Amino acid sequence: MLLNGRAIDLMIVDVMQSRTGVMRLLEAIRAMSTATRPALLVVAPPDAADRIALCIKLGAEDYLVTPHQSTFVRTRVNMALARRRLSIEVQQLRAAGREVNDSALAQRYSDASSRFVPREFLEYLKRDSLADVQLGDHIARQMTVFFSDIRDFTALSESLTPQENFAFLNSYLKHVNPIIRDHRGFIDKYIGDAIMALFPHEATDALTASVELYRQVVRYNQGRTKAGYTPIRIGIGLHHGELILGTIGENDRMQTTVIADAVNVASRMEGLTKHYGVPILASASVVTNLSPGAHFHLRHLGAVKAKGKAASVDIYECFDNDPVDLLEHKVNSAELFANAMHEFQKGLFLTAGRYFSRVAAMHAGDTPAAYYRDRCMMITMKGTGSQRWDGADLIETK
Length: 398
Fold this sequence. Notes:
With 398 residues, the protein is α/β, with parallel strands linked by helices. It folds into three domains: 10-100, Response regulator (Rossmann fold); 134-321, Alpha-Beta Plaits; 333-398, no CATH class. The protein is 48% helix and 22% strand. The strands form two sheets. Strands 4, 5, 6, 7, 8, 9, 10, 11 and 12 form a nine-stranded mixed beta sheet that branches. Helix 7 runs antiparallel to helix 8 (203-226), helix 12 (334-346) packs antiparallel against helix 13 and helix 13 (349-362) packs antiparallel against helix 14. It is elongated.
């Protein structure tokens, strides 16, 4: 028989075919197990209501009346497939010895949908379930945006097969994602190897999670090293600001998303970690919104301005995870570094360069001090070009 040995999700049957043949097909489908039984959609002209009714009675999920309209057909097909999935869910619940009722099914679908769309999104949009979300739903909120990225991932992935790439990413995410949730954040999306997360409560949550997540990567690397794999490095960027959570797309394909300049700034913070050679960068808006009494090792790295942007952003490195000797160096040289930055922002590059040079000479691992030492030298030699100096360093690369 045609059905034997085939994995079929949906069958569309013209009930105006041989009545005997259609009945035999329906009986054969009814005899199949729930897990392998395809969804059945019957097609008939408007004057064949008796045949449609008989087919529905014998197990068809839905029907189509000719002539068809494409959007209507898609809707009915999706509904038929949804009913088939529901039947399988009911069977799985019963096999597990669980009571099958509306609450159990709703919870199962809620748990499944939350793996793709965060529950927090639904809560902010004031929707009970994913099925209630409407195109254009949106709400504005102040939140801290978190971006993390694996350094040199392209080179790493080129040495792996597709299967190894997926296994590596899932292993890495399994180790770091719980830290975001533990600190009251939720993951908005994955962008390749990058993570974008939102912290809706306090900026302190985001910075605490960043420090702990970096430490978790250090622990994760210990296992990779023992197994003979190359350790990975990550960068984390944070920015606090107003954003809009909502849905975009069209009725047949929509997704939840976040729209805001705050997202772009947080992404740029993450990119600048490579520029300065530090693991965690936070904007001034994060630092000023930290809870009273929150203690982190922070150092002001001046103001930066992206190419094409009029406004500058003050940035801070968080060096809680630096090696002990480097951390102590940054603490002990804090006043000298701050003086150097003050001179730099005033445009006194010779003086600033001498200060930064002294700080960099104290410890070879102080990459921001070395960066500004070299930057002062370059500006002194070449000038700032057509840019009118306003104290913000122009960064043209992400």
